[in-house]
Design brief:
Number of helices of chain B: 14
Largest sheet of chain B: 5 strands, parallel
Shape of chain A: globular
Number of strands of chain B: 18
Distance between the termini of chain B: 48 Å
Order of helices and strands of chain A: EHHHEHEHEEEEHH
Strand order of the largest sheet of chain A: 4-3-2-1-5-6-7
Helix content of chain B: 25-40%
CATH topology of chain A: Aconitase, domain 4
Low-confidence stretches of chain B: none
Shape of chain B: globular
Structural class of chain A: alpha/beta
Low-confidence stretches of chain A: none
Largest interface: A-B, 44 and 57 residues
Distance between the termini of chain A: 18 Å
Largest sheet of chain A: 7 strands, mixed
Number of strands of chain A: 7
Number of domains of chain B: 3
Strand order of the largest sheet of chain B: 4-3-2-5-6
Helix content of chain A: 25-40%
Strand content of chain B: 15-25%
CATH architecture of chain A: Alpha-Beta Barrel
Oligomer: heterodimer
Number of domains of chain A: 1
CATH superfamily of the largest domain in chain B: Aconitase, domain 3
Strand content of chain A: 15-25%
Mean pLDDT of chain A: 95
CATH class of chain A: Alpha Beta
Mean pLDDT of chain B: 98
Structural class of chain B: alpha/beta
Radius of gyration of chain B: 20 Å
Chain lengths: ~170, ~425
């Protein structure tokens, strides 16, 4: 799957956004009803997020994004809300792997220069983030080759179905 | 050049000379899910081309997070899991069996195993020398079907704990102190490996508490050597034949070493809303508590029930405090009944919940009201964790929790011991 250029607005979050802030455990009863579950994405971090986010927009956060639970519903509801990539200074390990496995680009970069509402353009192949609002550019850490091949296939299940095995 | 425990296990399993930074494909010896991640895992499994389990007898489904179910949709998720277990012949631990990580420790983990679970606290099994880590539903679905997964071999941070714990201080205080020191991302992508005289002397129930919280520093695994203590624990379960010794090489390469003197540790508490936000229990005496929760995969073991019963015997829980206890497994529950712990706790005013995760993740059995304060022996105090972003959660040892249940304020257990 080619991602091409991603375009959208930045939604800013701070450091240490936990999986409980992304999708709270109290909504466990909605986990088999993903469209309903996705209505609560990021709710305890920004209650307005789901109302305001548009397809293509970005989550832009500080360090250790997605710490906590292994719930893959976390990147899944972010994807279902329309977010095309998550930018953070660093990611928690399980979340990072889950995001890639769901086909959601999780990009490690310096995010201090990006403000809420900034218009961004991201070219995954070139490795460049353009801040159209501020007329600035940033680079992001290359996604490791193993994970890039999974991302490019649209996620882990698609990757394994296509290759018939887990070969790296 | 010598190897860490992670490098040793992954070398044996992958059939290669695995070193930190390498990417390896490893067979998995045990794969499991629980009822809030299991349904998505099963759906991911079913969307794969290969729809048979690699090893049904080493694939386990646990109904523990909502146990028994509080509502219709979770009940239907449980039906979905039971039907999958019946169709594939995998292991099913239904409501009432206990928290997956405790049951894995009691029945399934073997030293040297590679274990993946769709639950972040899968790291708990590192206490018995298993390379055990939490993953999401897609990774676990692939491990279920192919019997293998990929890992980046982690660098290791060595944690050397010397000396002896003083009275009223233990494994929970150690791990909270450690997370406070290195931070919630202090070990992201890394392995933690515990060593030193205090670690050698530490019984398995305490090791499980430490390994359980390795993830709260971001670690991939939290490993103990498999030694004479491990052997005795396995023998006690009738699994002595599954023991094998595992230790790092003397010249293993660690990314860094952190030294902790057990004698100097104090009863430690994590304050809202981050596990790294630690303080001494005695500095928090002005914090009033509405609910005390003792249980979970961190501190719901027989020794936690025993300690609580001993501290509460012939006393009363402070007026206005709800004390909730949850034995982490059916085995712990029945042994606590036989030993009289349950009687003592209930007479003192405690509420006993069926074995499971209870209120830990906020979906039932102890959700907080607005502005309420809970002192919990669990592993997470994130905002909203116990069902309400307007509630405050403090984390502490069982001794601190039981002491606080008696006084109604966060209390250093040495005050009441």
């Amino acid at each position: 799957m080619e991602h091409g250029t991603l375009r959208g607005k930045a939604f800013k979050f701070g450091d240490g956004i936990s999986t409980d802030l992304i999708i709270a455990g109290k909504y466990a009863h909605l986990r088999s009803n993903l469209p309903e579950l996705a209505k609560h994405a990021m709710e305890d971090a920004n209650p307005e997020f789901v109302k305001l986010v548009k397809p293509g927009d970005f989550i832009v956060a500080g360090s250790n994004f997605g710490l906590g639970s292994s719930r893959e519903h976390a990147p899944l509801v972010i994807k279902m809300a329309g977010v095309s990539a998550i930018l953070a200074k660093s990611f928690a390990r399980i979340f990072f792997r889950n995001a890639i496995n769901q086909g959601v680009p999780a990009l490690i970069c310096q995010t201090d220069g990006i403000a809420e509402g900034d218009n961004l353009e991201i070219n995954l192949e070139e490795g460049i983030i353009r801040n159209v609002t501020k007329n600035e550019s940033y680079s992001f850490t290359k996604i490791p080759p193993t994970m890039l091949s999974i991302l490019n296939e649209g996620g882990l299940i698609h990757y394994v179905n296509r290759h018939g095995d887990l070969k790296l | 050049m010598g190897k860490t425990i992670s490098e040793k296990i992954l070398s044996v399993k992958s059939g290669s000379d695995a070193r930190a930074g390498d990417i390896v494909i490893s067979p998995v010896d045990l794969v499991f899910v629980q009822d809030t991640t299991g349904p998505l895992t099963i759906r991911q499994f079913k969307s794969g081309n290969k729809q048979t389990l690699a090893s049904p007898q080493r694939t386990a489904l646990f109904i523990d997070h909502a146990s028994p179910s509080p509502n219709r949709s979770l009940s239907n998720d449980h039906i979905f899991m039971r039907e999958f277990a019946a169709a594939t012949g995998c292991l099913l631990f239904d409501a009432g069996s206990g928290v997956c990580h405790q049951v894995v420790a009691e029945q399934l983990v073997r030293p040297g195993d590679v274990i993946v679970g769709a639950d972040s606290h899968t790291v708990t099994a590192g206490a018995l020398g298993a390379f055990a880590t939490g993953m999401g539903s897609s990774d676990v679905a692939v491990a279920m079907s192919l019997g293998k997964t990929w890992f980046r071999v982690p660098e290791t941070i060595g944690i050397e704990v010397s000396g002896k714990f003083s009275r009223g201080v233990g494994a929970k205080d150690l791990v909270l102190h450690l997370i406070g020191m290195i931070g919630a991302d202090g070990a992201t992508y890394k392995a933690l490996e515990f060593m030193g005289s205090a670690v050698d002397a530490m019984p398995v129930w305490q090791r499980l508490t430490v390994s359980n919280m390795a993830i709260e520093a971001g670690a991939k695994v939290g490993l103990f050597s498999s030694d004479h203590v491990t052997k005795k624990y396995l023998e006690g379960q009738g699994r002595g034949r599954e023991y094998k010794p595992i230790a790092a090489d003397g010249d293993a390469v660690y990314e860094r070493m952190i030294k902790v003197a057990a004698d100097k540790l104090e009863p430690t508490v994590a304050m809202p809303h981050a596990v790294e936000n630690t303080a001494t229990a005695r500095s928090l005496i002005n914090i009033r508590v509405d609910q005390v929760f003792i249980g979970t995969c961190t501190n719901g073991r027989l020794e936690d029930m025993a300690e609580t019963a001993a501290m509460l015997k012939k006393k009363k829980v402070h007026a206005g405090v709800r004390l909730i206890l949850c034995p982490a497994s059916k085995k712990i529950y029945t042994e606590s009944i036989s030993a009289g712990y349950i009687q003592a706790i209930v007479e003192a005013g405690g509420i006993i919940l069926p074995p499971g995760c209870a209120g830990c993740l906020g979906l039932h059995q102890g959700a907080l009201g607005d502005k309420e304060v809970c002192l919990s022996t669990a592993n997470r105090n994130f905002k909203g964790r116990m069902g309400n972003p307007e509630g405050d959660i403090y984390l502490a040892s069982t001794a601190t929790a039981a002491a606080s249940a008696l006084t109604g304020r966060i209390t250093d257990p040495r005050e009441v011991l």
